[in-house]
Amino acid sequence: MGGIDDYESYDAVGLAELVRQGETTPEALLEAAISRVEARNPELNAVVTPMYDEARRCIQAGLPEGPLRGVPFLLKDLGLLYKGFTTTFGSRLFTGLIAGHDSTLVARYRQAGLVMFGKTNTPEFGITITTEPALFGACRNPWNMERTTGGSSGGAAAAVASGMVPAAHASDGGGSIRIPAACCGLFGLKPSRARIPSGPDVGEGWNGMSTDHVITRSVRDSAAFLDISAGPSLGDPYCGPPAAGPFMAEVGRDPGARRIAFTVVPPSGAEVDPQCVAAVQDAARLCADLGHTVEAAAPVFNFEPFQEAAVTIINTHTAAMVAGGAKVLGREVTEADVEYVTWRAAEAGREISAPDYVDAVRVVHQTGRKVARFFQTYDLLLSPVLLQPPVPLGYLDTHSQDVRTYVKNLYSFFGFTNLFNATGQPAMSVPLYWTPDGLPVGLQFAARFGDEALLLRMAGQLEQARPWKDRRPVCRST
């Protein structure tokens, strides 16, 4: 491998410290990352757009003296724009669209000194929880090459789990940070609504349900990335509550004795795999051993209207994305231009009336208020991230016209995460459990709106009690 021999033993904060101390250079770190992408990506299909020459040019031009100067980094191929390169959104519709400017978050990554050298695989428009787009093909899980990485940040998770980079950009509109983190044995924090800016082109994603952040191996990396990216940008429609101090300072602090609720029953009431139940029970015992009060409880709200409202919002935005594709192409978009599930979602979105759309937003906000009352009693809610361990590739087939089976399979896998996209609360996936056959099972912890600090303290305590950073996939190529 190129670059430094022990590259993979460091997290992003550690690599930045090596650069600061003069023990390595941004050039050496970049070549170390590129060599791992070149060796492992043919099997994993995590990186879909190399930007190697651009990264070398940025280093040669001089990197800002930011806190993560010289750290190699990958952007998800969804949402964020990087000037001079495409963001395809995982779709054939946008393969020719070259960005004329950077997104606000990309500008903040630049200022932090990060070296962005590629883009990662994502499902079309990010509307499903596996990463198997028609445009780029399936992304494979380093823990088992025949299993899903999750989605929609599946390429980001595969890249971090396989050691290509210590952290990668991700986004989460229904679980798309937490789900891939859970499938790939990583740490994934979804920040509070509006903690991270979405500008300058949009003020929010999916009516505030979607947000950006990263997937990481270490907790402190997630905190470090919050510190460089959080805070409103000029003209934002609203912003998250101000933090009490640097997020990095929260990692390692005692969270105190907390009241933690736990549940193994998703809001839908669907069946949960025994391994996911066992994972929650194991995590609940660990939390009790750490001095927390742990008891079975869950928020009560009207699930069916909430789920229908969330789908209405997503379908409406999918219809708008397809309409945007038509403008780019200068012609009508047809069913042949997108995956079948995307086409059906867009069709459904075009049929939604303005009053129904407004009512869906109202229902989502109403759900947030009900769930917030639950967190007046409990500090945290523990649950599985998913209803099953990582499912086989092909289980969620967005190309099949058998939509009934697709929906059935979707809701047999997914069900704990999207509530906190609707409420805007921060939630994280923590890698505390593996099945007997070696598949990761992520544990979700959710906190009150704006309380990422507590999640980071809790995650740091769990990371210290049961370290996971040296637990690496056995299926990756070398």
Structure description:
This protein is of the alpha/beta class and 478 residues long. The chain has a single domain, classed as Alpha-Beta Complex (Amidase signature (AS) enzymes). The protein has 14 helices and eleven strands. 56% of the residues are buried. The model has no long low-confidence stretch (mean pLDDT 97).
Low-confidence stretches: none
Q: What is the percentage of strand-forming residues?
A: 5-15%
CATH A-level architecture: Alpha-Beta Complex
Mean pLDDT: 97
Total DSSP E strands: 11
How would you spell out the order of helices and strands?
HHEHEHEHEHEEHEHEHHHEHHEEH
The first-level CATH class is given as Alpha Beta
CATH superfamily: Amidase signature (AS) domain
Report the structural category.
alpha/beta
Count of discrete domains: 1
DSSP helix fraction = 25-40%
Major β-sheet profile? 8 strands, mixed
| Strand order within the widest beta sheet | 4-6-5-10-11-9-7-8
Number of helices: 14
- CATH structural fold name: Amidase signature (AS) enzymes
Give the N-terminus to C-terminus distance in angstroms: 9 Å
